[in-house]
Design goal:
Strand content of chain A: 15-25%
CATH architecture of chain A: 3-Layer(aba) Sandwich
Order of helices and strands of chain A: HEEEHEEHEHHHEHEHEEHH
Structural class of chain B: mainly alpha
CATH class of chain A: Alpha Beta
Distance between the termini of chain A: 23 Å
Shape of chain A: globular
Largest sheet of chain A: 6 strands, mixed
Order of helices and strands of chain B: HHHHHHHHHH
Oligomer: heterodimer
Number of helices of chain B: 10
Strand content of chain B: under 5%
Helix content of chain A: 25-40%
Largest interface: A-B, 24 and 17 residues
């Protein structure tokens, strides 16, 4: 087990308990997401055996690992679609594992989630898909909603496709619309599940550039689950590699490349 | 011996587990139902989807029911020299039993399969997760609206089917033995009370509840890919039809007790 940022985690835990650090805006600068001692298993299959992770505001963490390592489960635990067996999940300092549904829904409004296959509502148009969270969680008028949708679609290069149905869009276009929908409520945390999976190299590159652009425009904490090492290297500040229910190594891409751990070397070699 | 026990216990365990999950699902829907917002727009969309789009099929089933009953009853009643009882036989058969049950089974097929397949497809493509992740309760938005729509449309569709049944029963009768529609209806309803008409029609609201709950439950617990969606659609139809028939038996007994 190599925990290069063990000290960071300890600092994070202290800050969650006593938020003394102040940012330049004068607000307490709590980490956006902190996972401590997280356990999750499905029957006899242990997915997480006490993992610790944290992501700060404005930071992008890429989570890598083999298929079945629990990468997508990690995102679903953070957004409350699944419950951990034990351990702590803090979102902006608030413990979410014990929240009731209403309180959890309030937390969810602060998070955007891009699903692996975009998960656009197939009975709704592109415009209605993005309007879905706006209609339910904001007091925007129809014209304000319309303006916001145009703005979001322009941000992902899809401004001409308002009236199209999801079935009329390519995989890359669906991901773009999914991203626009994830950003609709201006979330503080963006969770991306395999944003480039199933896309050709050119479209993958476009999606990576789009994610980088959005990260610059919105000061969000992002967690990107991916198999795509190139994508992780391009968009992430920090990378965590999951293996056998734990974070095997955590650090910059350069730190991963320098690691003499056999699995890390094998993982990087195979992917390249 | 242990093989025999396993072969009995395994399906029994599965059945009890299914009922337990159904109870939890119903509890989640009831809890969601009392919370704002009430998703009125989605409810209207479901009313249109289940009500107006089921109307042609239900009307045709009602018409066929009227024709068959008139033809069958005429020959049977003629055998006993009671042809004048034909309007009453048609009216009572349709309104008391045939109309509600036929509508229940037809809607189980059309709407039950539709709900099971739609929600199943949404489940396997993570659309239900996406709804939940956006802070919207899927039990409210998807299940509650569909269940309420089913409860509301079933009695209305039954009225439509009953009307078509009576109309086509009269047409069938009058082609052989001319009689005015007014006279046919007067003879049919002679001696009938409001309870004769009301209770059988409104018991279809219970059928609607069954179809909506089973369809949503089977759809939202779909596992696997397209095969899972197919299985959900099929099981929605089979189980809702089965429970509609069982409920009919119980409700008929209750109606006979409370509206003798």
């Amino acid at each position: 087990m190599i925990h290069s940022d063990q000290e960071v985690l300890l600092a994070v835990d202290e800050s969650a308990a006593a938020p003394a650090i102040e940012s330049s805006t004068g607000k307490p600068d709590l980490p956006a997401v902190v996972l401590r001692g997280l356990h999750k298993s499905f029957g006899s299959q242990i997915v997480f055996d006490g993992i610790d992770l944290s992501v700060g505001t404005g930071e992008t963490l890429a989570v890598l690992g083999r298929s079945g390592a629990g990468k997508s489960v990690l995102l679903k635990l953070i957004i409350g679609l699944q419950e951990p067996d034990s351990g702590s999940i803090r979102i902006h300092g608030q413990e979410i594992t014990s929240l009731d549904l209403d309180a959890m829904n309030e937390i969810r409004k602060k998070m955007g989630f891009l699903f692996q296959h975009a998960a656009l509502y197939d009975s709704l148009t592109v415009e209605q898909n993005i309007a879905f969270p706006l209609k339910r969680h904001t007091r925007m008028t129809e014209s304000q909603q319309s303006h916001r949708i145009q703005e979001l679609l322009a941000g992902v290069g899809m401004e001409g496709d308002l009236k199209k149905m999801p079935s009329d869009l390519s995989g890359g276009m669906q991901k773009r619309v999914g991203l626009a929908r994830a950003l609709a409520l201006e979330p503080g945390i963006l969770l991306l599940d395999e944003p480039t999976a199933g896309l050709d190299p050119i479209t993958s590159g476009e999606i990576n550039e789009l994610i980088l652009k959005l990260q610059e425009e919105h000061d969000m904490a992002s967690i990107v689950v991916t198999h795509d090492l190139h994508s992780a290297k391009t968009i992430a500040d920090r990378i965590a590699l999951l293996h056998e229910g734990n974070v095997l190594i955590e650090g910059s891409f350069a730190e991963l490349e320098k690691s003499d751990d056999e699995f890390v070397s094998e993982f990087l070699k195979r992917d390249s | 011996m242990s093989y025999a026990l396993t072969s009995v216990w395994s399906p029994l365990n599965g059945f009890l587990e299914w009922f337990g999950d159904l109870g939890l699902f119903a509890w989640q829907v009831m809890r969601a139902a009392v919370r704002r917002p009430f998703e009125g727009r989605e409810l209207m969309r479901q009313l249109d989807e289940m009500g107006s789009k089921s109307l042609p099929l239900v009307a045709m089933a009602g018409a066929a029911m009227g024709v068959v009953l008139a033809l069958e009853s005429r020959s049977s009643l003629a055998h006993f020299g009671a042809k004048s009882m034909l309007p009453a036989a048609v009216v009572y058969s349709i309104i008391h039993e045939t109309g509600p049950v036929v509508v229940g089974l037809v809607v189980s097929g059309r709407v039950g399969a539709g709900i099971g397949a739609e929600l199943g497809s949404m489940k396997v493509t993570e659309q239900i997760d996406a709804i939940e992740a956006s802070g919207v309760n899927p039990y409210k938005f998807l299940a509650f609206t569909r269940i309420v729509a089913c409860i509301l449309v079933l009695p209305l569709l039954t009225l439509a089917a009953d009307f078509c049944g009576l109309l086509f029963g009269w047409i069938t009768d009058t082609l052989v033995d001319p009689v005015s529609f007014h006279r046919f209806i007067n003879q049919g309803f002679a001696g009938a009370s409001f309870g004769d008409f009301l209770a059988p029609t409104f018991r279809t609201a219970v059928f609607g509840l069954i179809i909506g709950v089973i369809g949503c439950f089977q759809g939202m617990r779909t596992k696997g890919g397209t095969a899972g969606v197919g299985l959900s659609a099929t099981s929605s139809v089979v189980l809702s039809s089965l429970f509609v028939i069982l409920a009919d038996v119980i409700l008929v007994k209750l109606i006979l007790v409370f509206f003798p």
